Amino acid sequence: MATKKEEKNTKKHERKGLDEFETETTKEVEQKTFQIAQNIVDQIKRGVSPTFTTKVRGLSNVYFDEEKQYIQLGDKKTVRPFLNLGAARKFMQTMLVNDKCNEYLKEGKTASIREIYYELKRTVANTKENTFDGQNESNEVIVDIEHAANTIREKLGLHAESKGSLYGDITLKDKKHDNDVFNCNSLGRGGWSIMSRIEPEEIEIVDVNADVVLVIETAAMYNRLIEERYARQHNAILVGTGGQGARGARRLVHRLRYEYDLPVIVFTDGDPYGWYIYSVIKSGSMALAAHSKYMAVPDAKYVGMTLTDVETYGLQNVTEKMKEGDVKRAKELMNYDWFKSKEWQAELKLAIDKKIRIEQQALANKSLDFVAKKYLPEKIEKEIFL
Amino acid sequence: MAEKVQEKKEIVRKEVEAEQLFTEFKEHSVADFFKKNKQMLGLSGKQRTLTTIIHELVTNSLDACEEAGILPEIEVSLSELGTEYYEISVVDNGPGIPEDKVASALGKLLAGTKFHRLVQTRGQQGIGVSGIILLSQMTTGKPTKVISGTNKGKTVSLEIAIDSKTNTPKVTDKHYLDNKFKGLALKCKFKDLIYKKGQNSIDEYLRRTAIANPHLTLQFQDPQGEVTKYTRTVNKLPNIPTAVKPHPRGVTVDEMLTYARHGSARKVNSFLTSTFDRFGQTAVDNIQKLVHFDLNKDPRALSWEEAEDLIKAIKQTKFIAPSTDNLVPIGEDHIKKSLKAIVEPEFLCVVTRKPTVYQGGYAFQVEAGVAYGGKAGRLVSVEKIKDKKEVVIEEVRASEIIRYANKAPLLFDAGGCAITKTVESVDWKRYGVSNFDNSPITVFVNLISVHIPYTSAGKSAVSDDSDIVNEIKLALMDVSRKVGIYIIEKKREEEKKEKKKVFAKYAPYVVEALVHTTGEKNKDLLLKNLSNMVLEKLKMEEAGVKAPEDDVVEDDSITEEEEFEE
Question: A25-150: what CATH class?
Fold first, then answer.
């Protein structure tokens, strides 16, 4: 054990998985936001129709990299002109967000994406219109700027709300908060609330004493496993994503996998939404395709729930009916390149045919501790993964 | 002038004829005749009856003024005396009626009526002022107050009632007034009437009357004392329509017999050539070959069967189309002037079509106008939700169709009228009106004919004769096309303005952010350049030149929030 742990500690210093922009200084990123604005100023001065260029995300510009086994972003660019009726508003919004980020970086401040929305929301003079009608509008523009500046929002002085929890024998140091050092095994039942930014210069992983990382979709199941002392008995680190994995949780799982060489196992509800949570951990997401490199864990394993479990564990009467949207989503998943494996196609087809789904909590039908005492140990031991 | 004399003679002759006709139902009381024929006389419904009363009185004034060559000025006022109880007063500046003729002109039913005259008349029912006096008397038991002033003699004031048994006037309270007055003033009371505003109101009736009579100055005072005045826009009197001989193609068996009995010809053949328009010797010869009786017989001895035979033969005979030169349209310029003054639209287009013939026998003519924007259309109240919660009533403009038969407004039975149907059948989208019902549009249609084909005895809707529908359609298409060009151009202009506004509202925010980020000193230059670029771009767009940024379509980029949406 001791030797293994030493190895891990040495690995940590290689800062594996970090990209060039992960090491960019605040000054450098500030310069990028300045340059975006300066280019447009120059265009206007020359009397050239001002445009803002960023990369296209979404299905038309993402592809599944067979070799690396995760989603990558293509080269397709999108040009947003001011002098286009459909684009003028978004262009204005982009300039506001870019300017605000530039200001945060200059002044060494950070804000949540909700805060920047409220900071920039106002009524456009002489109209009944707002600069932003809902956070989704500023969110979209933030992603545009991330891609235009080839950086991530955290580098722009922005962060998402903390989302997801960490529990287990792992010691962290919060370098941005008085260098607090704490072990996530002794923070009580809730564990540690995962920050949106988990970069080494902020959160240092001091020590890890575990054999596996278990990623759990629902907070209820995360709590169940803690209560059953699953982490301690099985030497596991529990990451509760609370639904779809946020950047912080994904980045943390990625670091544990590559910096500490821990296997990653994902445990979600048995439905298209749950399976997509697994998919995002494993192959990355379309919206963050540019960052898959330090988010995706292509060898992550999926333990459940599966529709086979329904048969194996006799859960037929605790399945739920899939809604129209679930079926539609399942059909979409079938078309994604990263769901093309024989096993997944079979599972999705089964779900579409039977129109049923199974929740993690359905295991409580057997007994509360069934999941910790039998289901997970048995499936992980025998490596019954999908 | 000679023509006018002839016209007067004609009227006199017809009056005699009418009196003869009247004797036929004299034994019945005229009041009974009224009650039994309410529908036909336009006296069904409390609101409609009021409109009919106003119509008869105003028409009487208009006709009197026009015949006397006076530019009409009419004042109508309505006051509420009690529940469903009103007093109506109509004052005109016409020639007045000489003192000795007042009683017989107004207090005798069917006197001076245009009954059985084939002439373009404003009226629909034509019960005349005497009919109105009788109606007043029937509902209230009160006489009608009349003041008449001619240029000669004194102004006379009297009260007229009608003895409905003998159809003779009863004059009371006759006296002379000192003040000088020329014209006729009538004041009568009615029960069982309802006055309300809206599409079928007399306000609307009078507004439409003013539109169709640009030479008329009309004032209306409603029961609340509110006065609406329409001032004439044209200082020229319209020509007076002349009576025409009926065209053989339009005549029915019944009419044929009536004409035959009242004519002066000795033989059927001379009766035909003298009574009907376009009836020559060739036609007579042809018809003689077709009918089974001798055309030399006395027309008064014509039997129903023979008349039927005659009509059948007429149908198989060729006739020159009826002459159309006796029709008197309002005229494009005049309609334009009054629509402009009364409707106050933003844009206006009017056409008066050439006269033509329907069913082979009757001349008719269509005038159509489309007024768009401004105050065109009618005001309707709609509920709107303000700020997502509060419900407010807002007034918006909706389309209106104003129908006329011989310049008289048709207010009722809109849905069953060929004019309405034809207007609605127009593909308004082609003319830039995407939602006809909710657009600020007034569509004007005036159908002129010596014989308007109504759908029913109520005479408030035109039946859909294909020749007439076709003419209305052509007229509407003609004006709509021109209005359409304007609307589309206007929309383009508005779009341009709208676009300019879009860029103008965002530009300061863009520049502000850019200046703040970069520390650029020359903010005004940025604003000026941007604004110039916008103008340049819009100019290019107008010229049809595409700029590269026009093709930009928003990409399908998604955010995490969207991608992960459950």
Answer: mainly alpha
